[in-house]
Specification:
The complex is a heterodimer of chains A (116) and B (114). With 116 residues, chain A is mainly β. Chain A has strands at residues 3-6, 10-14, 19-21, 23-26, 31-38, 44-50, 56-58, 64-68, 73-78, 87-95, 105-106, 110-115. In chain A, the strands form three sheets. In chain A, strands 2, 5, 6, 10, 11 and 12 form a six-stranded mixed beta sheet that branches. A four-stranded antiparallel beta sheet of chain A has the order 3-9-8-7, with no helix packed on it. In chain A, strands 1-4 form a two-stranded antiparallel sheet. Chain B contains no helices and eleven strands. Chain B has strands at residues 4-7, 10-13, 19-25, 31-38, 42-51, 54-57, 65-67, 73-78, 87-94, 104-105, 109-113. In chain B, strand 5 and strand 6 form a beta hairpin. The chains are: A mainly beta (116), B mainly beta (114). Chains A and B meet through strand 5 and strand 6 of A and strand 5 and strand 9 of B.
């Protein structure tokens, strides 16, 4: 099975500052990796995903993430955040092959709060 | 195209009462999932279905039952609600034709059991 660790439960930053949300995963098979965002009182929305190929993945709203197989990490970054980026962010992993195909395993979430 | 919808949005139950949460998707997806979200715990999979008439247990299935009689609907039942089932419930769906199995989420149902 797969598992995900989000290393920070809360990340406060000021507007226009850069931010990195950290995610590490554990898996015995090759994986697909996802970042989802949840705005207050809403469902989850996909920010970006890594399936294969280029290790730098660009998503919506100016976010990007880098897959690092040797460090089993998939950290999310944005060079300049806005107040509207305040939300909870979830990293998730699924197995690319085998019986776990399609099942997502989520981290516990990182609350990003952007201050003016 | 409504995507994934959930009914109801909010519900308060007394301990021991039963209820059914309905999830509907209009994207012709084969796979459907029920999660619960608790503070600091992320999303945990309760049950899932890979097709009409089939269901399987996820990480936290105890106290819940599900049914998938139609491809577009996935029902989650609580036979005898307990305060530990107070949570926000999310339904999701994904397509078997999408190699990444990207999941699309509904808006959630906030359930309180007193």
């Amino acid at each position: 099975a797969q598992s995900v660790t989000q290393l920070d439960s809360q990340v406060p930053v000021f507007e226009e500052a850069p931010v990195e949300l950290r995610c590490n995963y554990s898996s015995s098979v090759s994986v697909y990796l996802f970042w989802y965002v949840q705005y207050p009182n809403q469902g989850l929305q996909l920010l970006l995903k890594y399936l294969s190929g280029s290790t730098l993945v660009k998503g919506i709203n100016g976010f990007e993430a880098e897959f690092n197989k040797s460090q089993t990490s998939f950290h999310l970054r944005k060079p300049s955040v806005h107040i509207s980026d305040t939300a909870e962010y979830f990293c998730a992993v699924s197995g690319a092959k085998g019986s776990t195909l399609g099942r997502l395993y989520f981290g516990r979430g990182t609350q990003l709060t952007v201050w003016p | 195209n409504a995507g994934v919808t959930q009914t109801p949005k909010f519900r308060v139950l007394k301990t021991g009462q039963s209820m059914t949460l309905l999830c509907a998707q209009d994207m012709n997806h084969e796979y459907m999932y029920w999660y619960r979200q608790d503070p600091g715990m992320g999303l945990r999979l309760i049950h899932y279905s890979v097709g009409e008439g089939t269901t399987a247990k996820g990480e936290v299935p105890d106290g819940y039952n599900v049914s998938r009689l139609k491809k577009q609907n996935f029902l989650l039942g609580l036979e005898s609600a307990a305060p530990s089932q107070t949570s926000v419930y999310f339904c999701a769906s994904s397509s078997a034709r999408d190699s990444s199995y990207e999941q699309y989420f509904g808006p959630g149902t906030r359930l309180t059991v007193t």
